[in-house]
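Holo prediction. Input below; ligand is pyridoxal-5'-phosphate.
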Amino acid sequence: MTRAYNFSAGPAALPEPVLRRAQAEMLEWGKARAGVMEISHRGKDFIALAQKSEQDLRTLMAIPANYKVLFLQGGATQHFAQIPMNFARRGQIADYIVTGHWGEKAAKEAKSLVDVRIAASSEGGKFTAIPPRALWHLDADAAYVHYTPNETIHGVEFHDVPDVGDLPLIADMSSDILSAPVDVSKFGIIYAGAQKNIGASGLVVMIVREDLLARCPKDIPKIFNYAEHAANESMLNTPNTFGWYLASLVFEWLLEQGGVAAIDARNRAKADLLYGYIDNSGFYKNPVEKSARSRMNVPFTLPREELDAAFLKEAESHGLMALKGHRAVGGMRASIYNAMPLQGVQALVDFMKDFAARNG
Ligand SMILES: *Cc1c(COP(=O)(O)O)cnc(C)c1O
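Structure of the complex:
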């Protein structure tokens, strides 16, 4: 068997050079005379890795000095709950913008901790568009505004950062972090599970404006308190050291590619190729409004559902895997994160053309 082009939504494909390096360093990492997951997180070697990875991420995203970078655990889902626990008082209003499955889930998880208000939602249109900013009903006293810049399942992406005035803007960037340049200073908090664009599941990267950490209540357990994690350099307890190491390799790989601006150009070319073909095919369809289409996750349907199984089976035999869409949307989904090369998308389009010609 050979390694396929992997269109999985997450955990997703990692850059091949990163995997090869991790493989080569598995038994002996640097001068440690042991693998990176076998050494103390408090030793100088691992501390150096932690510091360099943070510095590389700061370079990649141009993170201002008044933001802390945390390397946490629990997946994005745990932070759906931990964010209201830390940044709102019990019963305070928090505004949620819901443009797909993950935003909806974040709002539901927050409900037992804050007064969740859905300030805007595109559920009525089956999450195929972004509600215009002018129609959002933000509360001036809200603790924060939470949104999902890229909805991984519905394939809906914001292409600019919404202006929410002085309210802290919190973004679940799990599926689009590091895919294009963003102005971090427009956010209160950016957080992301690692398994799409950063590395392995089980690691969460959080970028948090320092003044917000003053809100973290003292009466919650320390392990849930972001201010404690920040004060302890993300080493309040044993961090996910192997996940952190993989993230550090991905950051180095991104810098070698020319940084986020270069990867953005590549991502645009990939998305343009795929959407361009889908729109002109007269066979496949993507339901999302053009201005809100995701560059990372491209859902598409075939003209008849009966063709789905054959499409998936034949795609696999062509070395194209994990194209099955999420059950909430149906059809197919091609996730084309940073690690997917243009050749992979070209191979997919070539196969789609051939399949359409034989089944049209
Ligand atoms: C994958 C994903 C999640 C869930 O991440 P877990 O690590 O499984 O908790 C949350 N939000 C978005 C946008 C995602 O893509």
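The chain has a mean pLDDT of 97. That is the main takeaway for now.
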